[in-house]
Each structure stands twice: as structure tokens, then as C-alpha cells.
Amino acid sequence: MNSIHRSSLVLICQLFAVSAGMAIAAPVQGSEGQATANQQKNGKSDRELTQDIRKAVMADKSLSIEAHNIKIVSRNGVVTLRGKVKSQDEKKTIVDKAIQAAGPGNVTDELMVSSQ
Question: What's the CATH class of domain 35-113?
Fold first, then answer.
């Protein structure tokens, strides 16, 4: 009888571990179908596009820490920018850098100006 309980407990633990792993591995969809960092494509062109924009943002020392920490997600050549920035000028600067790298019509701006 004791071995039956032990076997059941092992089976339950294994099922829990598998289901937890699947939940962690499942891509997370943002609200309203927004692209999230988990959905960043690993293709060379999308990865390089994200890196190019990140380098341009980080190289601009006039931008705030918040602006340096925005999320940049590239999927099939389309870039989504998400996060908070300190001003409308910062927002425009970042969007312009993304457009320069990805091209007009390939940037989704979801940046928000934080109210202080």
C-alpha cells in the first residue's frame, strides 16, 4: 500500500514538473496581441536589427536611463518599441533611430512618456 502512494506521488510530481515547464516555455502574448520580448525572432536579420537599434539608443548619452532600458522586439523586419521615456523628445529620438534602422512603416511605437 505504501509503494502505491509513493508511485502516485512520483507521478503527480512528474506531471507537475512537465506542465510547469510547458508554461515557462510557452510564448507570452502581450495584451491585445502585442509583440513581447519572448517573441523576438532568432533569425540573423531580426537579431541584427534589434542590436543595431539598441546600440544606437545606448550610444546616445543624452537619453535617460529609462530610455536606455526600453524593450526593442524585431519580428520579420518589423520593430516594436515599448517602455517609458522621460519626454516627447526622447520618444521621437528613439523612434527616429528605429526608423533609420528598420525603414519607414516598419516601426510600431508603443513608448509612453512618463508623467512626473
Answer: alpha beta
What order do you get walking across the sheet with 78-85 strand by strand?
71-75, 78-85, 107-113
Higher pLDDT, 6 or 39: 6
Residue 95 has which C-alpha cell? 523612434
Residue 30 banded pLDDT, cuts 50, 70, 90: very low
Cα gap 80→60, rounded to integer Å: 19
| Residue 63 · residue 94 · CB < 8 Å | yes
Give the whole-angstrom CA distance, residue 90 versus residue 95.
Answer: 9
Residue boundaries of the structural domains of the chain? 35-113
Angle at the Cα of 105 from the Cα atoms of 56 and 61, rounded to 5 degrees: 15
